[in-house]
Structure formats: C-alpha cells, structure tokens
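Because discrete structure vocabularies remain unfamiliar, we first show an illustrative case, written as a sequence plus integers encoding its fold.
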Amino acid sequence: MTEDTERTEEQFKAVMAECRSLFEKKLHDYGPSWRILRPSSLTDQLFIKAKRIRSLEVKKESLVGEGIRPEFIGLINYGIIGLIQLDKGFADTPDMSAGDAMALYDRYAGDALQLMLRKNHDYDEAWRSMRVSSYTDFILTKIQRVKEIEDLGGATLVSEGIDANYMDIINYAVFGVIKLTFG
C-alpha cells in the first residue's frame, strides 16, 4: 500500500466516523424513522441533496446558511440507509432497534470502504485530481440511473444494480467531504 493510499484510507475512515456519529445522534433523536421510506422516496431524498449541492456550486451563495459539506454528509448517510432498505425492504412503522441499525450502518460503511480501496488501487488516486463539482455531477448521474432502474422495475439488461449506484454515491460524497475538509 502506498503512502497516498494509506492517507486516503485514513481520511475516508475519518469522514465515515463523523458521518456515523451524526447518524447515531439522529437515530437517538428520531429512531429509525427512515425505515418507512420506499425506494423511490429515498432516491428523491438523495436527489434533493445532490441538486442542492449543484445549486450552491453554481450560485455560490446559500440563503439557508448550510453549505455543501453537510449535504455530502447527508448523501453518505442516506446512501447507507438506501443499502439497508434494499436489504431489509421498507416497513410501515420503524421496526428496528438502534443497535441493529448501527450494526447495519457499520456493515455497509465497511463495504463502501472496501470498494473504495479496490477501485482506488485500480484508478491510482485519480479522484484527487478531480474537481468537487465533478463528484456532484457523477452523483446526480448515479441518482438518475437509479431512477431509471426503479422505473424499469429493476429489469436491467447489462447495468449494475441500485446497490452499486448507492455505493458509488457514498464514495463520491466521501471524496467530496475529504476535499472540502483536507484540501
């Protein structure tokens, strides 16, 4: 493992620890209320977060007072929620303990890290040379793909599934947070 790869893994883990802490606090405040989200609603939640990032990048001004970084964190956490929902299905009422939700969060965060490490090996840290706005556009593209897959009822011919798109959304959002945090 190269020094750059080790730095990427360390920064990725730091971002994920911050996201996990926020997820855990919101889980305390709201419980697993997200369990009622159907796939299309979750996709729309990801869409509005990514669309807001793009709007802030273009307009260079926020009238709400929150910037781009918190939206990337929201994309990471909702991406993990998406993976949980794909695995468990949606529920009519919150049906999961906080401990179970955190265990699933940790599982999918770990999966995202492992995917990033494999891809980062093959792409040789290329993400570091990209602009943050490119991450936003790639995330919006992945969300559009998820919408298309949902509209097809999952019946794709050659494409990756929704889970792979969620993983890429998570990883691009982590790269955005790393760039905005560490430069």
